[in-house]
């Protein structure tokens, strides 16, 4: 279990159906999206929905997508399909966190296809600390995103 997972586990009130537990740092206008363990089309749909809801209610924000807990068993066609889709908040910065060489390679492949489609490629880092440093937000304090 990664540091991000320990710090950002879903609160008990987020029971089934599963909701991606977004966290937001108001000072730096920085969103943390901890991705579920499985890199499936349905989990990407959940992430898209969570991000779209956030953007609709609070506006776009720089985003860290934490894939640290994602398992390495992946249908690469899902990743390739994602590479040809725009990021919902593409005028904001984003960073991907991965925890293994295999996942780093997978997301480098994503980046090559994403660039070929004309989109900006997010940097890939190995830890939340690296992502925060890259975004100049080492003082970030993430709070759960709760909608009324």
Question: Could you please describe the fold and organization of this structure?
Answer:
By secondary structure, the chain is an alpha/beta fold. The chain has a domain of 93 residues. It has 5 helices and 6 strands, in the order αββαβαβαβαβ. It has a 6-stranded mixed β-sheet. The longest helix has 18 residues. It is globular and about 35 Å long. The termini are far apart.
Across the major sheet, the strand order is 5-4-3-2-1-6
Calculate Rg over CA atoms: 14 Å
DSSP summary, beta strand count: 6
Distance between the termini: 30 Å
Binned strand content: 5-15%
**What is the overall pLDDT average?**
86
Shape descriptor reads: globular
Low-confidence stretches: 1-17
- Number of DSSP helical runs: 5
Following the backbone from N to C, one meets helices and strands in this order, namely HEEHEHEHEHE
Given helix and strand content, the structural type is alpha/beta
* Quaternary class: single chain
- Major β-sheet profile: 6 strands, mixed
Q: Considering DSSP H and I runs of 4 or more, what fraction of the residues is helical?
A: 25-40%
């Amino acid at each position: 279990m990664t540091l991000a997972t320990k710090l950002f586990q879903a609160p008990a009130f987020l029971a089934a159906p599963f909701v991606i537990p977004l966290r937001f740092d108001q000072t730096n206008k920085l969103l943390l999206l901890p991705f579920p363990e499985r890199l499936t089309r349905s989990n990407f749909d959940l992430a898209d929905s969570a991000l779209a809801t956030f953007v609709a209610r609070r506006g776009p924000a720089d985003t860290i997508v934490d894939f640290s807990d994602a398992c390495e068993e992946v249908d690469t066609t899902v990743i390739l399909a994602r590479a040809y889709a725009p990021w919902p908040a593409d005028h904001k910065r984003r960073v991907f966190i991965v925890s293994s060489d295999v996942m780093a390679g997978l997301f480098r492949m994503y980046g090559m296809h994403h660039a070929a489609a004309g989109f900006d490629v997010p940097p890939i880092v190995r830890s939340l600390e690296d992502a925060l440093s890259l975004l100049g937000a080492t003082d970030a304090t993430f709070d759960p995103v709760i909608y009324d």
